[in-house]
Automatic annotation (TrEMBL), chain A:
Signal peptide: none
Domain Moybdenum cofactor oxidoreductase dimerisation: from-to ranges: 302-413
Pfam families: Mo-co_dimer, Oxidored_molyb
Coiled coil: none
Family annotation (PROSITE patterns): TAT
Biological-process GO terms, alphabetical: sulfur compound metabolic process
NCBIfam families tied to this protein: sulfite_DH_soxC
Keyword list, A-Z: Membrane, Metal-binding, Molybdenum, Oxidoreductase, Transmembrane, Transmembrane helix
Name of the protein in question: Sulfoxide reductase catalytic subunit YedY
Region (Disordered): 1-23
Oxidoreductase molybdopterin-binding domain boundaries: 120-281
Organism: wastewater metagenome
PANTHER family, per the entry: SULFITE OXIDASE, MITOCHONDRIAL (PTHR19372:SF7), SULFITE REDUCTASE (PTHR19372)
Stretches that traverse the bilayer: 29-48
UniProtKB/TrEMBL annotation, chain B:
InterPro entries found in the cross-reference section: Cyt_c-like_dom, Cyt_c-like_dom_sf, Cytochrome_c-type_DH
Residue ranges of the region described as Disordered: 167-194
Entry's Gene Ontology molecular function annotations: electron transfer activity; heme binding; metal ion binding
Entry protein name: Cytochrome c domain-containing protein
Domain Cytochrome c: 62-149
Pfam families: Cytochrome_CBB3
Length: 432, 194
């Protein structure tokens, strides 16, 4: 339980759950229900009489903080619970991961400090002037670049999602995660800026037999993946900035690969080396790990694409729907194969569906925000969302995934997520 | 009169200037002429990958017996005395389990290429001191792990010639390219699911 901080002075209620996610949801609900529910009356705003006369608070009667408090701005202190949270599945926090708080975010962009983390050997502290990128192998001229040199190339920016191939892996066998941060929080979306990888590869001159690229990081894992040349020449980016500022250390400062729509681990952080070869390199991260075991004992390899997926972020697990009446169901949809064309939402566990509204812009290989108005009757409900992308692919049910892949596939879980709403408003993760 | 021919000529001159401005040393074939040409000597310490062909394997060799000592000193505390795992990944056993309800993925049961063991141990292990083992030690600990998995005999010694020749039990266990999409949900809107 978290000490009450966010809503002090907000509703004054002492019935609100201590979990900040629930409290905020109830606060929103209370405001919707009557704009100024009487103290203690959250969820039964009709009982409230005339609102209390508004007082003039202290922040209106005295000066606030000066500029540069601090020089690099931070969120309001009342948002201190909106943070990444760690997995409890790894024995070390150096090779581990942390989740983005999707339930607390709006729009399509993930703030830099909340982008999910997955490291295999900790976060290195790399001095940018000492970092180099080497491009070699089956090229006409092996080249070495400084970051300053890479920044001189023609620049492009693109808003693209980033998702770990293991996102939602806890949900194959049972409904495990409590919040959408637990279940889907290995997903983030940023504006990435850099130089197209194709530009730099053409500088070095790829030889005709060069069909694969080994991408290698400078971290303690010297993380390596083999990338198909077609992808490298298509929309791959040598990225040095995210959301307008330099890459964060945990996102690969000073240089990372961005491979739109591909599983996150291929988008090598702290990128130091690109070797062009004729065959894949069969690194540990594409053999022992990040391969997908089928029921017959074979494993799928080089399963790069993150297929279409969606999830309702509000209301979602761990929150409480704060009263009957109007609520907007909100969520995110994305596809590694291109644009989202449609998202359907069900409030009865998948029996009947309505098409949600998609917020602009709808970009390829980018999260798309969807919204659907909902008037809650107070009865039990099961909320689901179902994404469709421009290839016509329809996000599968969990049963369909298991039929196709069994229960030990581990990665690439993109089944339809169900949130159960109890008559008391409590939202929980279920398999429906 | 300013003819089309003149316009084309003028454009050519302008384009030439622009190119010269953007890429002064176009005679080397590079458009932007950024970066520094390098030889293998410059990048040797970074060029550490070992693909299944064995290309890039260093000189040196190591035996199962030597590997037992390297393992005990550098690996056992995380992976168990005999590679049984705990707290970190299990490295030994699991043969025949991949198609079962409780698949056990280890070096012996799952990894398709012996070269990957060398590559990964060299680049990333031991976890607290990556790249601290010598080539001899990496050959040795690779031999030991392969021996614990029943893949090489107790008297085996591995080097740049013999390591790529080792055939792993699950060598043919991997499928690519990606066969997905492998589901075909439909967007039913009413009275679905029966």
């Amino acid at each position: 339980m978290t000490k009450k901080t966010r809503d002090e002075g907000d509703t004054g209620t002492d019935t609100a759950p201590a979990d900040p996610r629930r409290r905020r949801f109830m606060r929103d609900a209370a405001m919707l229900a009557g704009a100024a529910a009487a103290p203690g009356a959250v969820g039964s705003a009709l009982a409230a009489g005339k609102p209390e006369p508004l007082a003039v608070p202290s922040w209106t009667t005295q000066q606030g903080s000066p500029i540069l408090t601090p020089a690099y701005g931070m969120p309001s202190k009342f948002e201190k619970d909106v943070v990444r949270r760690p997995t409890d599945l790894t024995p070390t926090d150096l090779s581990s991961w942390s989740f983005t708080p999707l339930q607390d975010l709006n729009g399509m962009i993930t703030p830099n400090g909340l982008v999910y983390e997955r490291h295999h050997g900790g976060v290195p502290a790399i001095h940018p002037s000492e970092h180099r990128l080497v491009v070699h192998g089956l090229v006409e001229q092996p080249l070495m670049f400084t970051i300053d040199e890479l920044m001189r190339f023609p620049q492009v920016s693109m808003i693209r999602f980033l998702e770990c191939s293991g996102n939602t892996l806890t949900e194959w066998k049972s409904a495990t995660g409590t919040t959408v941060q637990d279940t889907h929080g290995l997903l983030s979306c940023c504006e990435w800026t850099g130089v197209p990888l194709s530009t730099v590869l053409k500088e070095a001159g790829v030889q005709p037999e060069g069909k694969w690229i080994l991408a290698e990081g400078a971290d303690a894992a010297a993380m390596t993946r083999s990338i198909p040349m077609d992808k490298a020449m298509d929309d791959a980016l040598l990225c040095y900035a995210q959301n307008g500022e330099a890459l964060r250390p945990e996102q690969g400062y000073p240089l990372r690969l961005i491979l739109p729509g591909y599983e996150g681990n291929t988008q090598i952080k702290w990128l130091r080396r690109l070797e062009v070869g004729s065959e894949p390199y069969m690194t540990r991260e594409e053999t022992s790990k990040y391969t997908d075991l089928m029921p017959d004992g074979t494993a799928r390899q080089f399963t790069y694409i993150m297929e279409a997926k969606s999830v309702i972020t509000s209301p979602s697990g761990g929150q409480r729907v704060g009263g009957k009446g109007f609520h907007e169901i909100r969520g995110l949809a994305w596809s590694g194969r291109g644009r989202i064309t449609r998202v359907d939402v069900s409030v009865d566990g998948g029996r009947n569906w309505e098409t949600a509204e998609l917020d602009d812009p709808v970009l390829p290989r980018c999260v798309t925000r969807f919204r659907l108005p909902w008037r809650w009757s107070g009865a039990e409900a099961v909320l689901q969302s179902r994404a469709i992308d421009e290839t016509g692919y329809v996000q599968p049910t969990r049963e369909q995934l298991i039929d196709a892949r069994g229960l030990d596939y581990v990665y690439h879980y993109n089944g339809i997520q169900s949130w159960h709403v109890a008559p008391d408003g409590e939202v929980t993760n279920v398999h429906a | 009169m300013f003819t089309r021919k003149h316009a084309i000529a003028a454009f050519a001159v302008l384009a030439g200037l622009a190119l010269a401005g953007a890429a002064g040393a176009a005679d080397n074939g590079r458009t932007y002429d950024l970066g520094t040409p390098v030889t293998h000597e410059t990048i040797a310490k970074w060029d550490i990958d070992v693909p299944p062909s064995g290309k890039g394997l260093p000189e040196g060799s190591g035996s199962v017996a030597q590997g037992r000592e390297v393992y005990a000193k550098n690996c056992a505390s995380c992976h168990g005395e005999k590679g049984e795992g705990g707290p970190m990944n299990r490295l030994v056993g699991g043969r025949g389990t991949l198609a079962s309800d409780s698949p056990v993925k280890t070096v012996g049961s799952y990894w398709p290429d012996a070269t990957t063991v060398f590559d990964y141990v060299h680049r990333a292990m031991p976890f607290t001191a990556p790249e601290s083992l010598s080539a001899h030690q990496v050959y040795a600990v690779t031999a030991y792990l392969l021996h614990l998995n029943g893949i090489v005999p107790a008297d085996a010694t591995l080097d740049r010639e013999s390591l790529p020749e080792v055939k792993m039990p699950n060598r043919d266990g991997f499928v690519s390219p990606d066969p997905r999409p492998d589901t075909d949900n439909t967007a039913c809107m009413e009275d679905c699911g029966d």
